[in-house]
Each structure stands twice: as C-alpha cells, then as structure tokens.
Amino acid sequence: MARGRRCEGCDNREFRLEPNRQGRGFKVYCTECGRQQELRAVPKISWTPLKEDDLRKLEELRRTVLANLTQKK
Predict the structure, then answer these.
(1) Residue 7: its pLDDT value, please?
(2) CB-based contact 36:27 (threshold 8 Å)
(3) What angle do CA 12, 15, 16 make, to 5 degrees?
(4) Contact in structure between 51 and 58 (CB atoms under 8 Å)
(5) How many angstroms separate the CA atoms of 21 and 9, rounded?
(6) CA nearest 30: which of 16, 47, 40, 19?
(7) CB-CB contact of 37 with 25 (8 Å)
(8) Fewest C-beta atoms under 10 Å: which of 23, 50, 55, 56?
(9) Among 7, 8, 40, which Cα is nearest to 25's?
(10) 21-35 confidence digits (pLDDT tens)
(11) Residue 56 located in a structural domain
(12) Is residue 44 part of a domain?
C-alpha cells in the first residue's frame, strides 16, 4: 500500500503497487476505484569519488575565490 497524490478518478490517496511483467518498476492502482495511475519516475543519483586532481583543482578554485573576495573589500 502506498500513499501520496490523489487518484485521477476518485480523489483517493491510497494505492496498491504491483510489480510489472519485466520485473523492473511497479504498476500503481487506486484501492477504491481500481484505476491504474501514472507512475512518475524518480531519477537515480549516481556519484563517483573525487580524484586527487579534482581535489587539487577545487582547492585552487577556493583560494582564487577567497583572494577575489578579500581584494574587493
């Protein structure tokens, strides 16, 4: 059972999730009227650790920004 936005048909806020045939993702159905709802995808966030060169560039950028801020005052 899932809760969230309102059903497009009856304004109910409770839904049941059923796995789709491909085994990836779900179909969403209203618990009152049974209407299938559109499931909005949530983007996956991926990241990679910073490399030594990236850290060095960030440190140089930080120093440049600090120098510019102190010069303008």
Answers:
(1) 82
(2) yes
(3) 155
(4) no
(5) 25
(6) 16
(7) no
(8) 23
(9) 40
(10) 776 777 888 888 988
(11) yes
(12) no
